[in-house]
Amino acid sequence: IWENSVFHVFVPIAKNHEINTFHLIDYLFTQQKSVVVPKVEGFEMLNCKISPDVNWTTGKFGVPEPLEFEIIDSERIEVVILPMLICDKKGNRVGYGGGYYDRFLEKLHPDTLKIGLNFFSPISEIEDVEIFDVPLDYCVSGEEILSFGAF
Predict the structure, then answer these.
(1) pLDDT of 35-75, one tens digit each?
(2) 83, 78, 72, 80: which is closest to 20 by C-alpha?
(3) Cα first-last separation, the chain
(4) In the sheet that 138-140 helps form, which strands lie side by side, from edge to edge?
């Protein structure tokens, strides 16, 4: 993934005990990568390109959001690091039910890498997959890194 330049990284919701991605964000800056984080507006997520010295506030659902940012188009994003509750062995994911990432993933360039971070390994199958659900390319858990065959 390191040949890519523009990374969208979710920021963790502390009350949901999500994986702390601030360490990854800091690392990406040391590698001279562009870092994009989400900001919820209505039913959509904005792509907010941030700088290393960004100031944060707490937004909708307790999600940290940047105070200073540049909005960029979804087509520019090359790698997405996204949250989830669980995924299955086909790369289908279950999030928190708001559909924000589902709507966001539909707007990406088809070659954008989609990497889910999770504390748990994938389950066998998620049965209620919808036609509009976009599968992951990879899942990184505490146990393993799985590729779902797209690359």
Answers:
(1) 999 998 988 899 999 999 999 999 877 889 999 999 999 99
(2) 83
(3) 11
(4) 70-71, 44-50, 34-41, 6-9, 79-82, 113-117, 138-140, 145-147
Structure tokens at 137: 């390319």
Helix (H) or strand (E) holding 133: none
b (16+ CB within 10 A) / e for 118-131 = beeebeeebeeeee
What global pTM score does this model have?
0.92
Closest CA to 4 of 144, 135, 112, 128: 112
Residues whose CB is less than 8 angstroms from the CB of residue 125 and which lie 6 or more positions away in sequence, other chains included: 88, 89, 90
Q: What is the pLDDT of residues 110-150, one digit of tens each?
A: 999 999 999 988 899 998 887 778 899 999 998 899 999 75
The residues with which 145 forms a beta bridge, in sequence order, are 140
Pairing of strands 64-66, 56-58: antiparallel
The upper half-sphere exposure of residue 33, i.e. CA atoms within 13 Å in the direction of its Cβ, equals: 25
N residues, the chain? 151
Helix, strand counts (H, E) of the chain:
2, 12
